[in-house]
Amino acid sequence: MNGDQQRYPHLFRPLDLGFTELKNRILMGSMHTGLEEERHGFKRMARYYGERAAGGVGLIVTGGVAPNRAGWIAPFSIRLASPSHIGKHRLITDAVHHHDGKICLQILHAGRYGYHPLCVAPSSIKAPINRFRPRALSRRGVKSTIDDFVRCAFLARQAGYDGVEVMGSEGYLINQFIVARTNKRTDEWGGSFANRIRFPVEIVKAIRNRLGEEFIIIYRLSMLDLVRDGSTWDEVVELAQAIEKAGATIINTGIGWHEARIPTIATVVPRAGFAWVTERLRGSVSVPLVATNRINMPDVAERVLAQGCADMVSMARPFLADPEWVVKAQAGREDEINTCIACNQACLDHIFSRRTATCLVNPRACRETEAPLVKTARVKRVAVVGGGPAGLACAATAAARGHRVTLFEARSELGGQFLLAKAIPGKEEFAETLRYFRRQLALHQVEVVLGRRATIDDLRAFDEIALACGVRPRKLELPGVDQPQVFAYDQILSGRCQVGSRVAIIGTGGIGFDMAAYLLQPSSLAPSVDSFLQEWGVDRTYGAGGGLGQPSRGKPVREIHMLQRSATKPGAGLGKTTGWIHRAALKRGGVTFWTGVTYQEINDRGLVFAQGKEQRLLEVDNVIVCAGQVSEHGPAEELTAAAISFQTIGGALLAAELDAKRAIFQGVSLADSW
User: For position 43, which CATH number holds?
Assistant: First the structure.
């Protein structure tokens, strides 16, 4: 047994499917990237999936592909419904097979989630996250849709796919048939549970009959709906057994509908926080089961398998972050893995804003043909001033390309604003990004100079200079702001100051929300799975359909007030797919928001402000200023005076809400230009 199998004996054990074998227990889960609709998108997807296959993934599942127009996620999104579509898909399958990989096409019918006027559903019930009301499928329409699934699977095999995944979870069309909340039909496709699951069972059965035994059929089963009137546990088991009998090769786990108000993949979810759901189904079926959601590192994946929770593990975003995740784990190089931090900022937020996905910690993701890592033809001496996210990304990338790099950091530790961010509940994974960059600096022999500000004399001899000096908190011009009970956000997050039980936070942007979350946490320890489930109201016993229970309502740790000058919604700039999580957490913590205020003074009693014509006093122990940042320019003025050229990146270029996505992208892009 070789080293990787000794360390991860379950993760790297082959999986025999009878007619074919998977080389390990790792499935690259489905994720829409936006490349599906881009010009030349199939060439780019071929490179994207090909790199992941070369990285050693056992089985890849594509982003969702519609079987017909009604199943589109949005107008003109990707579908496979005609032989004329086969050629483009061949680019993908050939690229994966070239690297000895296997790939399945996910067939996804959006149902009432389709963002277009052609959308259909079992019943004409509008989704709360969609402005379009679906048309109810007729009996003939139901049968025609089943035929479209089968045709899509047949064309997928013609295109070279090793199988298909039938998307039956996350609240899409099949899930809508299964659950009574969205299926009000009175014909043979509605009413009793046996009738409601007839649709997915008939789809799987018909695909198996048409495609034969030697074709992988994965069924993505919603094991935990997390919506009212969702499936009970007995219904989940009954469906799983019916799907197995219909001919599924593998059953994958689906967690939560898109309209659910419980986090399922964000960083606030503990690692492998839903593996218990898959474990509960083990023994009820004999086909392999796949656990998913917030599995991002090899030790986590191995533990899920070793504890008997599943037969395989699924990861999607971790392969955006690092296409070589598998080979690094196999070689015992876990410290070199660029870990997915589950921030959603460059992947899901982009998709829901109709932009192509990429990755905050890996800006090359989905840009493999546009921004490959290319070794330099001319080695330069490069100086990077500032060891925050922008500087780390720039220094690591330049060194990986072959340049000789020196990184200057005025503080005694690398990390910049990430050193603060990792202390915030739900952002603990930022520590992994720092670990990754530190390892890259060591691997590529970057000279790191800590605890000293770079001077013009230090920089004269370099061919290229990047200033990534970061930001500092913006100081308010307000009477009383210099009083000892007034702190800036960095003083709190760095642990330098203690805070009382009553607090006013000036600023309701991302930093203000992070500060409130930090002050509301009961301890410095990351939440356990059980405490997370209790906090958000997930019932392991499935006492009610969908697995919903009552969220815990503990006494808030502090009395917190958040204030902003504008009258707009607090946290308007938060992430599209995670902002609601932050708002919900602060609401549970009893945070009071004050908008449209004018700050007047801070005195011994607290914060004085006006709202409209009324003057108010918040009697608080501390006032914390989270009112933005200003750029640190470092030696920019001296370099300009000496006519020494340099380039500025990250917060030093633009101080805007600690934008790590922009900072890392700029660092990589600048290093690529040298």
Answer: 3.20.20.70
